[in-house]
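Narrative of activities, Objective 1.

The group set out to show that a structural description can be obtained from nothing but a protein's sequence at a throughput compatible with the screening campaign. Below is one input-output pair from the validation batch, recorded exactly as produced.
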Amino acid sequence: MSGNVWLIPLKNLDDDARAIKLGEIAGLEVTEQQRQFVGDPLRMMLVALEEESRHPFVVDSNGSAVGVLTLQSGAATLAGWADDDSAWLLRGFLIDRRQQGKGLGTLAAVAALREAARLTAALGGGQAGVVLSVNELNQAGRAAYRKAGFDDRWQYRGGDAGPQRTMHRAF
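Output recorded for this entry:
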């Protein structure tokens, strides 16, 4: 792995800084293969900014957006988890196609776990970790999550793009 990443919480930025980061997010590119697993980065962030339970982050490296992710409370069953409240849901996670293969996805997944633990402490939630679902065909995503310490728990047949793997990591 090379490089460093920072997760910048979009909800904490002032209007000007948020507009700059949203402009960078609009320029992120996804591969054709990624399209079957993720949505439009800008649209995902705009939706997340409007929902109280979602905490959208820009994944930043060297001062520029290289990806996005959202942590959501009360929604873990969307990833095939047994309940909604014991884990944060990591969703809408993608790294720009031009930045893939550098280990940034793994670094961002680890940073997301730290942010989720901070959010739990700050908001007084009862979450004990982070859960996600990743399409079984998304080998690169699964490998990045494993490198970040996420355990593959079971197959989940929810989702729009076919069978998923539910993965979890405790704080």
